[in-house]
Structure formats: C-alpha cells, structure tokens
Amino acid sequence: PLPTSRCVSMDARQPSQEPLQDVVRRNLARRAQLERDGWLIVRVQARWRGYVVRRAVRELLNRAVAQPDLQRAKEYARSLLPRDQEGRLLPLSCDLACFRVFGDGVYCYMRWCKLMQFAFFVAFTLSLANLIHNVSGGELLSQHGTLLNRIFTATTLGNASTLNSSYGAVEVLVSAVFTWAMFAGLDITLKEEAASRSESDVTQADHTLLVSGLPPAATSSAELGRWFADFGPVSHSVVALANRELLLRMPARQALLQSLHDAQAAYFLARTAPHSSGWRLPLLAGFGHLRRGLGLGETPPPPPSAASAPSSTRSAPGEPGGNPYMPGASVAAAATAREQRLLLLRQAVQQASAALADHDRESLSMVKRRHVGTGLAFVSFSSPEEATHARTALSSPSYTRAYCGRRLAARRAPEPSDVKWENLEVTRRERWRRQLASTGVMLVVASFGTAIISVVCYIQGKNVLNSLTLGDGMRGTILSLLVNLSVMLPVILGNVMLFVSVPVLAEKLERHTTFTGKELAVMLKLVFFQVYNSVFASLAFLFDPSIDLFARPWYTTGGALIANILFGDAIFIQVVLDWVRVGGLFSRLCLAPRAKTQLQMDRLYVDDADIYLAFRVQLAGKFIILALMFGTAIPLLYLLAAFYFWLAGWIDRYNLLRRLSPPPRTDAALTRALCLVVFPLGMALHALMACLFFSSLPAEDAAEANAAAAAASASRERANGGGRGGG
Q1: Is there a contact between 579 and 654 (Cβ–Cβ < 8 Å)?
Q2: More confident residue, 466 or 629
Q3: What pLDDT does residue 152 have?
Q4: Which of 345, 398, 491, 610 sits at 20 to 30 Å (Cα–Cα) from 690?
Q5: CA 131 – CA 149 distance, rounded (Å)
Q6: Is-contact 663 106, C-beta < 8 A?
Q7: b vs e for 157-186, b when ≥16 Cβ sit within 10 Å of the residue's Cβ?
Q8: What is the pTM of this model?
C-alpha cells in the first residue's frame, strides 16, 4: 500500500481544492482496501504453498519409504560392483590382475582356470593322433547309425581295431602336461599368497593375530593387550565370548524390523491415498440429488415401508445401515470401511513395534549376562612386522612364557568378512563330530540318488540307445540328442539334490569358524559326491553279462553317459544355473517389484555371491577328475574340458564384474585344495584307468579270436567227419 506522505507530496505539486481531512480519509480507506486484498492474497498463497509442500513431502516419502523405485534398486546394486580408480566399472575384458580386488581366492581361481584351459587344449592336441586312429578303426560303426552316435563312438578307444605304441607315447606326454599343470597351479597359489603379504597389499588381517589356548575365565581384553605389548604396540585386542545365542538373534531382529517397515508403509499409503469419503463423494451425492430432482436419473426403487421393516433394522439414510440408494449411506459406508482398514493397519504397526521391542528387551537382558570366553582372541598390532614377530615367537619351542598358566598359540587372523563369529565358541572336537554326521547323511542321500540314477540310466541305455532305430539325417540326429538328454536328466537331478542339501547341511549342522572353511567343505563334498554319482552310474552298465570290463559295448553306454554328463554340466549347469541364475532372476523380476520398502527392494534386487566361488570350483574339480579319469578312452573329453574352462572364464567375468555383489575376501584355500587334493586324485585315477582301458581291448580281441578259432576248428572237424562218412 502507498504511504500517506506520498499522496500529500503528490497533491502539493498542484494545490487541491478539497479539504485536507477528506484527502487523509480517502487515503486511509484506500490503504484498508489494499490490506484486505493483500490478506486474501496471502491466505491463498499460504494455502497453495502448504498444499504444494505437503504434496512434495508425500511424494518424497512415497519414493523413499512406501513406494520404492526399481531404478534406485538397480543403481544400488550397480554401486556394489568393483570399479577402477576413476570410478568406472571394470571392463569385461580387463586383465586378470584386476580380480585381485576380490581377494586371493577369486584371483587364484581365475588364473587357475586360464591354466587349465591351456593344459586341456594341449592334451587334446597331443591326443589327436590317437583320435584319428580310433576313427579309422570302424569297430563300433555298425552298432549305432545316427550321426550323433557315430561322431562320438568313432572317436573312442573302443572303435580302434588295434592298439599300437603311439598310445603309450601319447599317454606319457599327456601325463607330463598334466603334471606340469598341477605344479604350475600350486606355484600360482603359493606366489600369490606370498605377494599378498607385501606392503602394497597389506590388510587388517596382516596386522592381527588369532590367538588360541586362552582359558574360558580369561575374558579381559585389556589384560591380554598388555601381555602382548612385549612384542610391540598393540592397537586393539578383544577376547571372543561365547555369545552364539545372542548373535543368532540378529537375523531375527532384522526380520522383525522389516515387518515393522512393511506395516508402517502400508499404514502410510492407506492414510495418504485419496479415499472416497473426502470431498468427492458429497459433491457426487449432490449431483445425484440434482439429477433425480430434474428427472434425468433412474428412478430408484421405493424404500421399504415402516410397517414392513422391523423397528430394530430401520436406520436413517445417512447411517451405514440405511438405504443404499441414499447418498449418505455410500459416504458413511466408505468412511467406515476406511476407518476400519486404518484401524487394522494401525494395530499391525503396534503389534510389529511391540514384537521388536520385546525382542530388543530380551536381547538386552542377554547382553547383561556374564559370558565365558571361547578360548580365542584377536590381537592387532601397529605394523605387520610386529604381528609376524609375535607369531614367530609363540610358535618357537623355546618360548616358555605363559598367560594365565597356559601356553598360547597364534596364527594370522582371517579377514573380518571371513569370520563366522557365532561359531567361534564351538570346539574342534564338536566340529569334527558334526562334520562326520553331515558326511554320513550326505553319503546316504548320495547313495540313494546314485542307485536311482544307475537303474534309470541302465534301463534307458539298454532299451533306448541300443534298441530304438532313430534313423539317419536331421530327424535321427535330433531324436538321438533327445534320447541322450533323457539319459542325462536323472544325473542332473541327482546333482541338483546335492547342490541343495550340501550347503544346507554346511550352514545348519556344521559349525565352521570361517567362511573359507565353509566353502572348502562344500567344495570337497560336492566334488566327491558328484564324481561318486557319475562314476557309479557309468559303471552300472558293467552289470550286464554281455558287457565285459570296459569292453567295446561299454563305450556306447557308460562312455556315452560320461560324455553326456560333462556336456550337460558345461552347457546346462554352467549357463542356466551359473550364468542365467534363475533364482536371482526370479528375485529381481518377481519379488523386488513387489517390495513395500526401498530397503527391502534393494536387498531383493542385489544378487548375493555367498558361496558362488565354492560352486564354481567344485564344478571345475568335477571336470578335472572325470576328464582325467576317462580321457584316455574318450579323447574328446579333453576338448570338452578346455571348452568348459574357456566358457567358465567369461561367465565368471560377467557374474563378478556385472551382476553379483562382491563375495567375502578369502584366501586361496580352494585353489590350493584343487592342486593338492583334487588334481593328484585325478592323476592317480588317470594312470589306473589307462591301464584298465588298454588291457581290456586286447583281452576282448583275444577272447574273440579264441572263440573264432574254436568255431573254425569245430567247423573243420564237422567237415572232416562228413567227408570220411561219405567216403
């Protein structure tokens, strides 16, 4: 509003004819009008600003809490992937050295796969001479006429008509290549473990010792730190307490917290969503009155009379129990339904909050209890050299200093993400008992599955592969492929049973103190039981009296089964289960879009690596043993193994660099077990089976030759006898 002094000064330019009090009165009235207009504008603006702010806050809360955004979940999952120093994602074709970011376990495995790809390809190249000699034999071509079976059986040792000295020379060269590959893989592991201790790759685990041998009553971390201070400055020391029950309550609390978030989100959406009991229904009800008053709407049925309706059931039109054709009934019914829904949702929030509070109260009471020690402790020094000095001193027999009357032992501590804290209180004897129990259960399950697999494969192999006439051409090839897949399916299903049961037993029954120990146990058991299933299924055909030990008919049944198993693992298991990852894909496409909170959506969209490395290593170990075991008789297995390791390298690159959240940093225990346990076992089986394969064919040929000679002799005797009789 314009001030009064300005009006007076403007009138002073030209003298006015009206009195001064009229000018002042007019200016005051003008100012009052402007104030009234300004107040109205301010009120309108305040209402509009409040509406805009409330809508913006509601949209923000919906996006952040109640209405999660799938794009944000994708960005969160992408933020977990490894990047270079400039913040860009590592390219899929990056150097193998880039995989050091995942720790020694992943890096050594990737280098080992590259080495195995080269070794098996060289072994196949050396076996080409034997393969060509097998193809030229022609012993098995008359038994199966389909193109697929001719390609396989023609390359096996059973198709060779004779054996020569080149087979022995090739075996010597192939064994030398695999021996070199075994020691080269072990050298990679040892060198990488030594390089990881260098100053450039020092982690917190290099500063820390895992101390064992403490008495259960020794729970003072400060006293333990002072005891180790003689070796150097101690930055941190902590005694592991026996609080497994308390640690196991953390996942339960997370589930209760997620339930509370879901209930709060549902209640928030119900409160803020537009509802039918607001300003829209009364307006529509008014329009309904107007339409019926003008005769434009349908004539509603007459309401029930007072005489026909009992007095207890009569209600006013505006009440919920009134005439549904009255507008007030719809408004009241909608409002009542909304209030009831809000009441139920509010009660759900209160129940979830009460359950979480009860859980926290009980956990707090458990925290206040006095816990005994597990006998383990973690002591961190200021430098890795001091930790190494303390470890060396404690391992020396001449060191006699004791702590609480006991001699302590120490070793390099695992990475913090590698420790399973809830299992530290389990003694070594208890862990061994649980390991034996788990192995016994798995042996029973695997034996049952192996029996089924063996019977099914034997029946299918005898009745389908040898009896059906599938024809030639494309139709015969397709039918032969389907038959081979039908033989392979029982083995795959048996292996899937192992994939499900072994990790569950490792998590629920066994008590591993480190994630690496759990991966190692899962890997070794899966390798053993999968090889157990496959070998016994292929040897089931030897129960046929017409098939001698690894005679030529076995190559069309048991040998074909081994090739089908490895082919199915290289394609189906590796591509469908490990690359496509049906479980993770289902979680991302079906479960994550239905999440009620952003936190829940982020967790569902992230594909956790977990024991991914153990599954990949066990499949590689299976290829090592089966390819080495039967490669002498089936040289194509070397090429199939080389193809598997080539494809495995790219699948692992994609999964680790583009899909999975980084696995826990572990050491090279899995690759070291492959080099020290799995590979030597495969080499021993390779030498044993080579002797059996090479000795079976000459024995079969000799038996056939003796049978042919006996038949010829019998025919000559009959001919001679007939000639004498005729003379």
Answers
A1: yes
A2: 629
A3: 78
A4: 491
A5: 15
A6: yes
A7: bbbbeebeeebeebbeebbebbeebbebbb
A8: 0.73
Q: Phi and psi at residue 448, in whole multiples of 5°? A: -60, -45
Closest CA to 411 of 231, 217, 206, 234: 206
Beta-bridge partners for 409: 212
Task: Decide which of 713 and 646 is more confident.
Answer: 646
Ramachandran category for residue 427: left, alpha or beta (phi over 0 → left; psi -120 to 50 → alpha): beta
The rounded Cα 239 to chain-centroid distance in angstroms is: 33
Question: In 196-274, which ranges are continuous DSSP H helix?
Answer: 204-207, 221-228, 244-247, 249-272
With the C-alpha atoms ordered 414, 416, 420, 426, is the resulting torsion angle positive or negative? positive
Instruction: Give me the pLDDT at residue 632, please.
Output: 92
> What are the C-alpha distances in Å from 27 to residues 7, 16, 393, 485?
8, 14, 99, 100
Say which residue, 7 or 191, is predicted with more confidence: 191
User: SS3 breakdown of the chain: % helix, strand, coil, rounded to 5?
Assistant: 70, 5, 25
Q: Which two tokens mark 712?
A: 């010829």
Would you place residue 621 in the very low, low, confident or very high pLDDT band (cuts 50, 70, 90)?
A: very high
Q: CA-CA distances (angstroms) from residue 52 to 45, 46, 56, 59, 202?
A: 10, 10, 6, 11, 54
DSSP structural state of residue 323: -
Beta partners for 419?
Answer: 514
Which sign does the torsion angle of CA 561, 562, 567, 570 carry? Answer: positive
In the chain, the amino acid numbered 101 is: V
pLDDT of residue 37: 66
Pairing relationship of beta strands 234-241 and 208-212 according to DSSP bridges: unpaired
Which class for 530: exposed (0-12), middle (13-18), buried (19 or more C-beta within 10 A)?
Answer: buried
CB atoms within 10 A of CB 148: 18
Pick from 178-192, 282-296, 329-343, 645-659: least confident: 282-296
**Residues 6 or more apart whose Cβ sits within 8 Å of residue 427:** none
Instruction: Judge whether residue 360 has pLDDT over 90.
Output: yes
Per-range mean pLDDT, top range of 15-29, 139-153, 382-396: 382-396
Long-range contacts of 686-693 (CB under 8 A, 24+ apart): 686/175, 686/178, 686/628, 686/629, 686/631, 686/632, 687/175, 689/629, 689/630, 689/632, 689/633, 690/171, 690/632, 692/549, 692/550, 693/157, 693/550, 693/632, 693/633
Whether the per-residue pLDDT at 396 is higher than 60: the answer is yes
> Do 424 and 514 meet the contact criterion of CB atoms below 8 Å apart?
no
Residues 6+ apart with CB under 8 A from 93: none
Element (H, E) at 235: strand 234-241
Angle between helices 679-726 and 165-195 (to 10 degrees): 170
Give the pairing type, strands 409-412 and 208-212.
antiparallel
